[in-house]
Specification:
5 helices, 6-stranded antiparallel beta barrel, alpha+beta, elongated
Length: 379
């Protein structure tokens, strides 16, 4: 410090030394600050496309998630329109066959029934009068007191009166049926799953009033992926497990297979029916359905796209994603291949069931390299 400042007795030397010291400190600060602002470049992950390795052939077990439902789900509705006068059940009630579920205001239908009944009484009186007149005219005709035209006229009146009676009789039956339709009854024994209307609500014919769950054998629905639905057939056996029932297992049979995907995803609805009835299985329970694919004596094969296999001096190889996520790593796997078929290139060794095989971007990869393989890119 003494060297830089010199003698304090000389003010000029002191000022010159102080300026030199300040400049040196400023230069050091600027150098340090530049070092702090330097940032390392972010690592860019190369995206790749992957697929799950699934063996073809051999006996394999697959588990699908599903939901239980009643063996018969009936939407109860009135056959005529009207205003809800009474609702006799609540959600969760168990009902017997022919038990009343709801009623409509039947005043209008009562008036129609009375009107048709009165018209029928009048028509029957007219028919009796026309029949008596025809008998009288026929007697006169037999005694040659009237012409054949008068006889035909009397017979026509009698037949017309009888036809009117038959027509009104049918209308009376229809009016009586409509009157009975104002009372909604349970077609079979079951449990009311939901009630969809309120008192004094106007409803049309066919409007769902309540949902009735019935049937002694519950069913389970699952969504089967497109790569498996082709191997599922009606009548196949399966095992169903319910977590809410302490993992109890039930045998089931496939009864229906959807012809088209029910959602935007490539899954197809499949319905199974439990072989034995069980009252502990309720609609809406979560189930795990295990299906068996292939034959026990059939050999298992792995087929992959031919472009997923590369070759160099060490032999043929493939890349497998070992860690899923936004930053996965690939592992180079030496493979032994077989024939090229319509299903793809057969892999005899080197790949295992469930591996995530890279199918695009192989030439840019190296063993252990980080890649970007999001779940939505999986084939």
């Amino acid at each position: 410090m003494k060297t830089l400042l010199g003698s304090v007795s000389n003010p000029r030397n002191w000022v010159s030394a102080l300026c030199t010291c300040l400049m040196a400190l400023g230069l050091m600060a600027s150098v340090t600050g530049c070092g702090d602002t330097t940032k390392e470049p972010e690592e860019v992950l190369r995206p790749v496309r992957v697929m799950r390795v699934v063996p073809s052939g051999g006996q394999r077990l697959r588990t699908f998630s599903g939901t239980s439902k009643a063996g018969l789900e009936s939407k109860l509705s009135f056959r005529v329109a009207g205003t809800i006068e009474a609702i006799s059940v609540n959600m969760g009630d168990r009902v017997k066959q022919d038990q009343v579920v709801a009623r409509l205001d039947a005043k209008d239908y009562e008036l129609q029934l009375q009107d048709v009944s009165a018209s029928l009484d009048q028509a029957q009186a007219q028919a009796r009068s026309a029949t008596a007149n025809y008998e009288r005219v026929r007697g006169l005709y037999e005694n040659n007191n009237i012409s054949i035209a008068e006889l035909d006229g009397a017979r026509a009146q009698a037949e017309s009166a009888r036809a009117q009676v038959e027509s009104l009789t049918k209308k009376l039956e229809l009016a009586q049926a409509r009157m009975s339709y104002t009372v909604l009854r349970a077609p079979i024994e079951g449990v009311i799953a939901s009630v969809n209307v309120e008192l004094s609500e106007n409803v049309g014919a066919g409007t769902p009033i309540a949902v009735l769950n019935a049937g002694s054998q519950p069913e389970v629905t699952i969504g089967a992926p497109e790569q498996w639905v082709g191997d599922i057939e009606v009548g196949d056996r399966a095992t169903v497990r319910f977590d809410s029932l302490q993992g109890e297992l039930f045998d089931a049979t496939i009864t229906e297979i959807g012809a088209a995907s029910g959602t935007a995803a490539t899954t197809f609805p499949v319905t199974l029916r439990l072989i034995k009835s069980n009252t502990s299985v309720r609609p809406g329970m979560t189930a795990e359905v295990t299906l068996t694919f292939g034959e026990s004596g059939e050999a298992s094969h792995i087929y992959v796209p031919a472009h997923a296999i590369a070759e160099d001096r060490e032999g043929r190889f493939a890349y497998v994603v070992k860690e899923q996520g936004t930053a996965a790593r690939v592992s180079r796997q030496l493979v032994t291949t077989g024939d090229l078929t319509e299903q793809g290139l057969e892999v005899l060794s080197g790949l295992n069931e469930g591996d995530l095989l890279v199918t695009a971007g192989i030439r840019f990869l190296q063993d252990g390299m980080k890649v970007k393989a999001p779940a939505e890119m999986a084939e």
